[in-house]
Amino acid sequence: MVTGFDVLTMGRIGVDIYPREIGVSLREVETFGKFLGGSATNVAVAAARHGRRAAVITRTGADPFGDFLHDALRGFGVDDRYVTAVPGLPTPVTFCEIFPPDDFPLYFYRFPKAPDLEIRPAELDLAAIRAARVFWVTVTGLSQEPSRGATLEALAARDRGALTVLDLDYRPMFWPSREEARAWVERALPLASVVVGNEDEWATAVAGTPPDVAARRTVDRGARLAIVKLGPRGVLGVTGSGVVEVPPVPVEVVNGLGAGDAFGGALCHALLAGWDLERTLRFCNAAGAIVAGQLSCSDAMPGTDEVERKLAQG
């Protein structure tokens, strides 16, 4: 039976181990918190917080951390039927350091290989991927086989007129070079109707052009929407009708990690609601700001009412 999820994501999952002590090196930290993590997974959590029926396609290790992630997903209301274990590979763990307002070093432990890069084309539920109202994938899934082939096959299964989001999500530590990442992103871009990333990620995706020009070219080549996250300068959105730029939402940053995933979940909600671009970008900015002001990522994802209250504060 084909299940029509509102939001179906595909990509990274893991356990985030965040220090309870802010402004302290991991060398000295003594207490940590354990949280569900991984960009695509956090986006599904964020979408669920907005009342959307969400699921994630990913893989964990066959270990207690993998069990924890299943428990966490169910607790957040995210369907975990497409989350399977890979015997012999440990569930990834990610540590971070927290030096507000803009220094949050990440240390990924995804060795010898992350299970979420073992997603295989033959295991995909293509009917569910086609039926999802929003399908969200990240560039990390293109970094290694068999995940690369699975990601491209999943994208190709979608109708170009559907809401298919490519999160540029470029992480240098997952790639041998920026040039190789660009080569595979170029394969994926024509298969997406919505593309979102920060300035550096756009520079990786489209060489030799400013991010706003790269976004315009992406729309000219068939995408419905291209979004450039400008950090402290706000966010820019490009459609066939023009360009909209909105300012940032003021926030006292505690941990900037996860803000982009909150933005992503809010974007899925706004796209499904059919909002105009300016309202969409303002809503997404506010969702990201809420998470940036808290320690955790998944646990901090706001619901719609909380985002609306943030917007009402000006």
Helix content: 25-40%
Question: Could you name the ranges where pLDDT drops below 50 across 5 or more consecutive residues?
Answer: none
CATH topology: UDP-N-acetylmuramoyl-L-alanine:D-glutamate ligase
Helix/strand/pairing class, anyone?
alpha/beta
CATH class: Alpha Beta
What count of structural domains? 1
Number of strands: 14
CATH superfamily descriptor: Ribokinase
Total helices: the number is: 10
Q: How do the SSEs run, as a string of H and E?
A: EEEHEHEEEEHEHEHEHHEEEHHH
- What's the rounded overall pLDDT mean? 96
Which overall shape is indicated by the principal axes computed on the Cα atoms?
globular
CATH architecture: 3-Layer(aba) Sandwich
| Major sheet characteristics | 10 strands, mixed
End-to-end Cα distance, whole Å, is 45 Å
* Percent of sequence in beta strands: 15-25%
How large is the radius of gyration? 18 Å
Structure write-up:
By secondary structure, the protein is α/β, with parallel strands linked by helices. The chain has a single domain (7-13, 39-92, 110-312), classed as Ribokinase (UDP-N-acetylmuramoyl-L-alanine:D-glutamate ligase). It has helices spanning 39-49, 64-75, 126-131, 147-156, 178-188, 199-205, 211-220, 259-273, 277-292, 304-312, and strands at 7-10, 14-19, 32-37, 54-61, 78-79, 83-86, 93-96, 106-109, 134-138, 163-167, 194-198, 225-229, 235-239, 242-246. The strands form 2 sheets. Strands 1, 4, 5, 6, 9, 10, 11, 12, 13 and 14 form a 10-stranded mixed β-sheet that branches. It has a 4-stranded mixed β-sheet with strand order 3-2-7-8. Helix 8 packs antiparallel against helix 9 and helix 9 (277-292) crosses helix 10 (304-312). It is globular and about 50 Å long. The relative contact order is 0.15. The mean pLDDT is 96.
